[in-house]
Amino acid sequence: MKKRYFTSILISLLILVQLPSYAQHYSSNNTSLEHHKEEKGKSKIAFYMGYTAIPQAINHDVLIVPTIGFDYTYRLNNKFSIGLVNDLEMAQYVVEVEGNQELHHGEEAKETEVLEREFAYVGAVVLFYSPIEGWNIGIGPGIELEKNKNLMVGKVLLEKEFELPGEWEIAPTLQYDIKEDVYDSWSLGLTFGKRF
Questions:
Q1: What is the C-alpha to C-alpha distance for residues 162 and 182, in angstroms, rounded to an integer?
Q2: 142-153 burial: b if 16+ Cβ within 10 Å, else e
Q3: Of the residues 34, 36, 118, 155, which has the maximum number of CB atoms within 10 A of its CB?
Q4: 25 vs 131: which has the higher pLDDT
């Protein structure tokens, strides 16, 4: 399962790298706009506040967990950025996961296991692609650190940046975390950032 997980991430990154080759060329009128955009700071620090939905929590259809985060992003060019996305789930919860119990003669039986999570930290290195100014799509590998069990994570992000005075930004953000083959989660929140 891990091999398929990492193959999916690798294919997604390769597709993102190829997207600029299909982009239209800008006219000379847009050159001044691009130059103005490059004058802004290439680095951005941001604070994230939101909620994470965990659909496989015991006794709940969906458990909603408050989440905070701190991110750093570096703009490589007008279309690509790379960043560190760090989230902390501010709750203790339990999820049910399907486990396999091996029977005789190679047969397997599905068994439900309980996985406890306490203030889980998720860190990921994310490659962002900006198909349209202000819109960012990100994908990257990461890890969820937690005292009971650490999990590899695949993170997918979508955000829309709105510029504020003084190179401040606010961005509604939607995140999807694939936590190995154990469980997945959705996050929705706001990111407050400053370019420098």
A1: 35
A2: bebebeeeebbb
A3: 155
A4: 131
Helix (H, G, I), strand (E, B) or coil at 39: helix
Kindly list the domain boundaries of the chain, sorted by start residue.
2-14+42-99+110-195
| Angle of CA points 46, 143, 86, to nearest 5° | 10
* Confidence tier at 26 by pLDDT (50, 70, 90): very low
What fold does the segment set 2-14+42-99+110-195 form as a domain?
A: Porin (2.40.160)
The amino acid present at 196, given as its one-letter code, is F
Which of these, 161, 126, 154, 124, lies nearest to 16 by C-alpha position? 126
CB atoms within 10 A of CB 46: 24
Three-state SS at 9: helix
Cα dihedral 166/170/176/179 (nearest 10): 50
Nearest to 9 by CA among 88, 99, 124, 131: 124
E strand or H helix at 33, and its extent? Answer: helix 31-39
pTM of full prediction above 0.70:
yes
